[in-house]
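U., I forgot to send this yesterday:
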Amino acid sequence: MTDLNLPILDLSQLDDGPEAAAAFRSALRDATHDVGFFYLTGTGVTPELEARLHRTARAFFDLPEADKLAIENVNSPHFRGYTRVGGERTQGQVDWREQIDIGPERDAVDDEDAPDFARLIGPNLWPDAQPELREVATEWQEHLAGVARKLLRAWALTLGAPESYFDEHFGEPATLLKIVRYPGSREPEPQQGVGAHKDAGVLTLLWVEPGKGGLQVQRDGTWVDAPSVPGAFVVNIGEMLEYATGGYLIATNHRVVSPRYPDDRISVPYFFNPALDSRLPLIELPAELAAQARGVTQDPTNPIHALYGENALKSRLRAHPDVAERWHADLLASRA
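Result:
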């Protein structure tokens, strides 16, 4: 296995004067043109907040099974709540992890004329046995939303667009926070924590339990390790940012390999995406960048949609077939 030297970028450079900010934007553009992944420090997330998140995640997964299953996502038409080990799939294969999915807190849409993707809008499921989970998850999401917006403004400038480009086209972000535990595997061969995939949206900020590995990124046909770095997030872009740049920026396949028993691993990805009804138009890149755009990588079995809600719905229906079959059988039949 080859180690991957992902670039490490410091977000605080954006506040250190014009030269430092320009250097950060250049490094950001290069990292996401060449790899699609990087480490990010200087986010303002305190060690105390990290520790609270870690402690709260551990406490949730230590709850009795009945308390976790009380908020199982099969009870949510909006794909929220707890997923037991083996309850999610990537590329049709079972992922070996348990998790809770948390999105924007909204009322369900009661309109038969609403688009299909409006079914993703609705309330979260929170565990009665652990009220502090909602508090720390909310604080974490609010902070990372600011980090994400700062990154998107830096991308806009370095791609030759107005700084407000993404703000103008995003609308109210369709975020998703997943708090995940990967149990250890006793199998002799590496097991699928999460199968190989590209993220369907725009931007992912991943917090990984310190000292833990398992994340791998595909480069030139080879899987390379991307271990945790103290005080840093792993950041990657999704298919919609590749789409918006005509392939100048690249969304990269990645996966998670299960830890070896008795070890396990906590991982908290935060997905920052446009409003479900938003379309990201193609950015008019400067000529020197446009000449390096590779075009969008299209999988005919998994098309990229300009409308984010279609991407999100497609992903959720595939990932959670039990939820889809219970609540959205009509959509499955119409898309068969």
